[in-house]
């Protein structure tokens, strides 16, 4: 398992060094020793690149000048040998250092991205349902793909290159100060112009690169939505409108990319040409200093300006400009990488689902007197373990499935309440049905039972315990759910059924399939229970997928079952087959049913008719028919659900 990243507070800001510092801190958290070794190797490589100018100065001073002055070759050859030997040794060391840091950075980059994806996925698993309801799946996927790829380029290429160039520029700066303050002043002028241009152009390209990363996520979100809705698009002949909407988003992405690259692509040529201008200016000033016999000023004092100094300084000024140009060339990648890192940190900064519950679910033995004893092994009986902080005692309550809602108010956003004063009493083994138009609040009630969302006011009690006191994982373990939209995963049918209870045996999974009346069609498949389901189980019919989903809930064997339009996607013939299994599944359980087919809820103990978040009618089927209210009109067809 991945290490936990250091605690980091606040939203990342692209236009500050804070985000870069956070990224480096995150990186060093995993690869501190390797990165220190890499930075040392980069310094060695940078020093080797600079050494050519120093060696040039030494060759001119100790070889060429003495030869011109008539010194015999034999006297200068030794100096040349040492200079060439020193250069060769330096370049061999630099070659080894370069190979080491490039190989190490390749390993570090991929390993770091693995940690990032792991940390993102772990954080995503801890996020509340609200997050996924308010973010498109494509936008989230873009964080795993485009943003991590931008981060890869930043770490593997841009950071080492920028560090190399900065180290080289700083060393060159110091050496040039040692050589000539007059010429260094000319370089300062060029650097100031480079910095001004880089700041002006870089700030504008950064704005559009940040926008580009955001629009990429928006584009992927739209594409993901369109791919999932292809049948609807074709049925309603919506292809042209879909293309028009995509063109708008695509134009927005193109515009952001155009402007980002337009600014980004002029930065390198502008900086490099300013560097060329500075080189020419240095050469002119050096020539004038020699022509007018002006004494050279360096940190070492006053001295005559020699040919060795001029040649080396010119070479160093060119290297200095090249390194500044290399930094400017990486600005685009740095900005894109930081934009990607910002979006990644936004996901990592999302607040995980809070859980202040302390009541847990345990295996229990219950004797004939009703005394409950906690057990380590599975007994088939469950109890709520309720520790009391006041006196340190622990009490146990048998898990029965007694659920009660008292005057519950709820809104997905505080300013808009969607449930008003809802009260429901479900005794163990009862079947409670919800009927109402779309948006009436039926699914919202089941979301509250799972604590996917927390109520704004009122209370929900489970076996007499306030569900806010129950740990969410234990609460959800006691609830089974079958949704209208089936969610099957890539893998075998057996694995998908076992998803409801990971330690279930093959026999238990087969028994659950038989209960859901899925066994017959599964055994007719070529591979039976070992049949591998493709993407979204496209090799099965909608009804077959739903039957497997019901079998998955059955193998979990929870005391409370939630059926959210569980048979709406099953044809009438299949529904008749599954209804018998559903009835067996519901035996002895508290069941909450949401259904548009009123024939499936006739035998419910209580039917709740909801309208705009309020319960307007309640009672058994016969009672509601006798009242001749909304339910009567729905059942007789005088009124239809919308």
From TrEMBL:
GO molecular function, a single term: ATP binding
Entry's transmembrane regions: 35-60, 80-101, 162-179, 185-202, 266-291
Keywords, comma-separated and alphabetical: ATP-binding, Membrane, Nucleotide-binding, Transmembrane, Transmembrane helix, Transport
A Pfam family it matches: ABC_membrane
GO cellular component, one term: plasma membrane
Membrane topology: Multi-pass membrane protein
ABC transmembrane type-1 domain mapped to chain residues: 36-336
Entries under SUPFAM superfamilies matching the protein: ABC transporter transmembrane region, P-loop containing nucleoside triphosphate hydrolases
Intracellular or extracellular location(s): Cell membrane
Record protein name field: ABC transporter ATP-binding protein/permease
Organism: Candidatus Borkfalkia faecipullorum
């Amino acid at each position: 398992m991945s290490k936990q990243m250091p605690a980091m507070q606040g939203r990342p800001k692209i236009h500050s060094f804070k985000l870069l510092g956070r990224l480096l801190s995150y990186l060093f958290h995993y690869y501190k020793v390797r990165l220190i070794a890499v930075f040392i190797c980069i310094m060695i490589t940078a020093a080797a690149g600079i050494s050519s100018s120093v060696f040039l100065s030494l060759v001119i001073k100790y070889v060429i000048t003495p030869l011109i002055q008539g010194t015999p070759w034999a006297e200068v050859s030794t100096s040349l040998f040492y200079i060439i030997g020193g250069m060769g040794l330096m370049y061999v060391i630099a070659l080894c250092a370069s190979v080491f840091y490039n190989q190490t950075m390749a390993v570090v980059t991929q390993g770091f991205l693995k940690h990032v994806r792991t940390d993102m996925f772990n954080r995503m698993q801890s996020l509340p349902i609200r997050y996924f309801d308010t973010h498109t799946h494509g936008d989230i996927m873009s964080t795993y793909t485009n943003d991590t790829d931008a981060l890869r380029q930043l770490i593997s290429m841009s950071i080492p290159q920028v560090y190399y160039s900065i180290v080289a520029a700083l060393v060159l700066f110091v050496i040039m100060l040692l050589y000539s303050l007059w010429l260094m002043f000319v370089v300062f002028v060029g650097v100031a112009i480079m910095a001004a241009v880089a700041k002006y152009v870089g700030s504008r390209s950064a704005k559009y690169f940040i926008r580009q990363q955001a629009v990429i996520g928006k584009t992927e979100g739209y594409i993901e939505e369109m791919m999932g809705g292809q049948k609807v698009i074709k049925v309603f002949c919506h292809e042209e409108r879909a293309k028009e909407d995509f063109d708008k988003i695509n134009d927005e992405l193109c515009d952001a990319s155009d402007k980002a690259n337009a600014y980004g692509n002029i930065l390198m040529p502008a900086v490099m040409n300013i560097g060329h201008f500075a080189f020419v200016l240095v050469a002119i000033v050096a020539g004038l200093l020699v022509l007018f016999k002006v004494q050279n000023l360096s940190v070492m004092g006053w001295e005559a300006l020699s040919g060795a100094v001029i040649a080396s300084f010119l070479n160093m000024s060119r290297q200095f400009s090249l390194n500044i140009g290399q930094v400017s060339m990486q600005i685009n990648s740095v900005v894109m990488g930081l934009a990607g890192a910002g979006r990644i940190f936004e996901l990592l900064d999302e607040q995980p689902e809070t859980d202040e519950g302390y009541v847990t679910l345990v295996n229990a033995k219950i004797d004939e007197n009703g005394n409950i004893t906690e057990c380590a092994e599975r007994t088939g009986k469950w109890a709520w373990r309720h520790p009391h902080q006041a006196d340190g005692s622990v009490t146990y309550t048998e898990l029965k499935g007694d659920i009660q809602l008292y005057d519950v108010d709820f809104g997905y956003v505080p300013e808009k309440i969607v449930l008003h004063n809802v009260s429901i009493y479900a005794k163990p083994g009862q079947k409670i049905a919800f009927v109402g138009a779309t948006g009436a609040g039926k699914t919202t009630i089941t979301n509250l039972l799972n604590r996917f969302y927390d109520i704004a006011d009122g209370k929900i009690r489970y076996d007499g315990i306030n569900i806010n006191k129950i740990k969410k994982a234990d609460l959800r373990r006691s609830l089974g759910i079958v949704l209208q939209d089936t969610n099957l995963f890539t893998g075998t049918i057996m694995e998908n059924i076992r998803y409801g209870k990971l330690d279930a045996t093959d026999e238990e999974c087969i028994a659950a399939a038989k209960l859901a009346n899925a066994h017959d069609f599964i055994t007719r498949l070529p591979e039976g229970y070992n049949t591998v389901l493709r993407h979204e189980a496209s090799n099965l019919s909608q009804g077959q997928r739903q039957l497997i989903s019901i079998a998955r809930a059955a193998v979990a064997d929870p005391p409370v079952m939630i059926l959210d339009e569980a048979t709406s996607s099953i044809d009438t013939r299949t529904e008749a087959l599954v209804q018998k299994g559903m009835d067996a599944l519901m035996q002895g359980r508290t069941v909450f049913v949401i259904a548009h087919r009123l024939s499936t809820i006739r035998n419910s103990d209580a039917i709740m008719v909801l309208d705009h978040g309020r319960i307007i009618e309640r009672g058994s089927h016969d009672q509601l028919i006798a009242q001749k209210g909304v339910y009567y009109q729905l059942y007789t067809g005088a009124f239809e659900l919308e």
